[in-house]
Amino acid sequence: MINNILKGLQAYSGALSLISKLKLWKYFAIPIVISVLTAFSILLSSYGLSDNIGRFIAKIWFWEWGKETFTSISTFIGAIIIIAIGLILYKHIIMALSAPFMSPVSEKIEAHLTGVQKHQHRKTSFQEQLWRGIRINARNLIRELLITLPILLLKFIPVVNIFSTILLFLVQAYYAGFGNMDYTLERHFKYRESIQFVRKYRGIAIGNGIVFILFLLVPVIGVILVLPMSVTASSLNTVKLLKDEKLISNSNLPV
Questions:
Q1: Backbone conformation region of residue 48, classed left if phi is above 0, alpha if psi is from -120 to 50, else beta
Q2: String of b and e for 192-211 (b: at least 16 CB within 10 Å)?
Q3: N or C: which end of the chain has fewer CB within 10 A?
Q4: pLDDT given for residue 51 in this prediction
Q5: What is the pLDDT of residue 219?
Q6: How far apart are CA 58 and CA 20, in angstroms?
Q7: How many angstroms from the chain centroid is the CA of residue 236?
Q8: pLDDT digits (tens, 9 = 90+) for 25-50
């Protein structure tokens, strides 16, 4: 697991140069617009909600003593809830809507790495790629929310809340990496087969997703570069995994 996480992280080192080498920036134009507009919409709609959630949580404290302290803690927790849910919604929205644009990027990277321009893989249309992206990310969104909500409750437990933050980050990372990997897997696997493949290599997904989430912490530049960098890095890793599984033939990839 740790080794695969490191592989997911290391793939980013060659992402930027590969994008320029293969002249892939044009494919990211629309996804970048989707990313910026989605981020802006979520930030705008969530502005001030942390205070409202904080006051709502604070109502469970019936006593006067410690009321102010508990309200402050509740407001902080409310902010974390908004950030966590905002990140979840953001990443699944942009990954779902960007699927038809990211699949060609992944395909060009695969062709570059293998030296095979015409692969014998599944042929899908723009609409099919979009539907696949929506289906995968809707499934992941529901599962991530079901996992995230109990983790957020752990924020009320001292000491444990430190570890819950780390766990929350890793869950976010896993599902971000999951979505990025599927842009490549979409050509080789059907829906359920793709899910099984990512589960097998969840460490790769987590490693890719860690940097994805960290990108979003960088104002403005983060939402612009997050998809180009993460999708390219994920494609590099996923193609190598397919090669290791002998699902890609005539590969020029190093062993």
A1: left
A2: eebbebbeebbbbbbbbbbb
A3: C
A4: 64
A5: 85
A6: 51
A7: 16
A8: 999 999 999 999 988 888 777 666 66
* Residue 41 backbone phi and psi in degrees, to 5: -65, -45
Rounded to an integer, the average pLDDT of 48-61 is 66
Give the pair of three-digit tokens for residue 180.
């990025």
> Tokens 């493949």 appear where?
197
209 contacts 88 by C-beta, under 8 angstroms: no
Long-range contacts of 129-133 (CB under 8 A, 24+ apart): 129/99, 129/100, 129/103, 129/186, 130/96, 130/97, 130/99, 130/100, 132/99, 132/182, 132/186, 132/191, 133/95, 133/96, 133/97, 133/98, 133/99, 133/100, 133/179, 133/182
Which pLDDT tens digit goes with each residue over 95-132? Answer: 999 999 998 899 999 989 887 666 656 677 788 889 99
Position 20: which residue type?
S
DSSP-based three-state secondary structure for 110: helix
Q: Is pLDDT of 173 > 90?
A: yes
For 94, the token pair is: 């942009």
At 121 the three-state DSSP class reads coil
pLDDT value for 200: 95
